[in-house]
Amino acid sequence: MVDKTYIPEGQDAPASQIGATLEALAATIAARRDAGEGSYTYRLLTASPDAVLKKVMEESGEVALAAKDVESWATSSIAALMGFEAAAGNAELDDALSVQLPPEYGQAVDHLRYEAADVVYHLLVVLERYGISLDEFAAELNNRMTADERPTGAVRLHEEFVRRGK
Ligand SMILES: N=c1c2ncn([C@@H]3O[C@H](COP(=O)(O)OP(=O)(O)OP(=O)(O)O)[C@@H](O)[C@H]3O)c2ncn1[C@@H]1O[C@H](COP(=O)(O)O)[C@@H](O)[C@H]1O
After folding, report:
1. Is the CB–ligand 1 distance for residue 39 below 6 Å?
2. C-alpha of residue 41 to centroid of ligand 1, in Å
3. Which pTM value belongs to this model?
4. What reaction is this protein's catalytic activity (predicted)?
5. Total Cβ atoms within 10 A of residue 3
């Protein structure tokens, strides 16, 4: 599988890439509380809450559409493969199975990743807006894990703050 990521030369990777990234982004978002109208984040933090809540819904919908696009490229590739298989007969099956997914499939996956990042950014703005820290959010996820899944030293919610789908 192609590695789509890299670490800039001469820089050491943090222990957790996604942890470091979310912390940096959450800190940037929090700092934008004082940034003024020129900042998109500031506007989402200070305008009517509907603006950012609508964005979360819109971007979530775009994730779903982007994923459907990935599915349709995969399906059409399989359909083309089956057409080839029918035309070629079983003797050619091994060759047929090595048919590559089209470039559009990879582009659709890249687009899905892009839309997913839009959702996470807007979700972090919502968390900031309503005073939910990243540690508290982590505790919510950690509380749902089994003991085997939970990382050592993972932050947890006190029992009185646990909400089970209510
Ligand atoms: N990570 C983001 C980020 N992700 C998305 N967006 C904005 O969210 C908006 C999404 O708008 P659209 O719906 O038009 O989406 P699109 O991505 O243009 O296209 P589609 O999703 O419709 O395909 C765009 O204005 C993006 O710029 C972001 N804006 C800011 N950040 C981070 O927040 C920091 C502070 O940003 P400012 O507040 O603008 O200074 C930036 O330096 C970034 O690190």
Report:
1. yes
2. 8
3. 0.89
4. 1-(5-phospho-beta-D-ribosyl)-ATP + H2O = 1-(5-phospho-beta-D-ribosyl)-5'-AMP + diphosphate + H(+)
5. 5
Going from the Cα of 51 to the center of ligand 1, the distance in angstroms, rounded, reads 13
Q: What is the ipTM of this complex?
A: 0.93
Ligand 1 pocket, 28 CB below 6 A?
yes
- Using the CB atoms, write b or e for 21-44: b if 16+ within 10 Å: ebeebbeebbebeeeeeebebbeb
Q: How far apart are CA 68 and CA 19, in angstroms?
A: 28
Nearest residue CA, atom 9 of ligand 1? 118
- The protein residue whose alpha carbon is closest to atom 17 in ligand 1 is 118
The contacts found for 42-49 with CB under 8 angstroms, 24 or more apart, are 44/122, 44/125, 44/129, 45/125, 45/128, 45/129, 49/129
Cβ of 140 below 6 Å from ligand 1: no
Domain boundaries, the chain: 18-143
Q: Which protein residue's CA is at the shortest distance from atom 19 of ligand 1?
A: 115
Blockwise average pLDDT, block size 10, the chain, 166 residues: 90 94 98 97 98 98 98 82 66 57 93 98 98 97 96 94 82
> What's the DSSP call for residue 16?
-
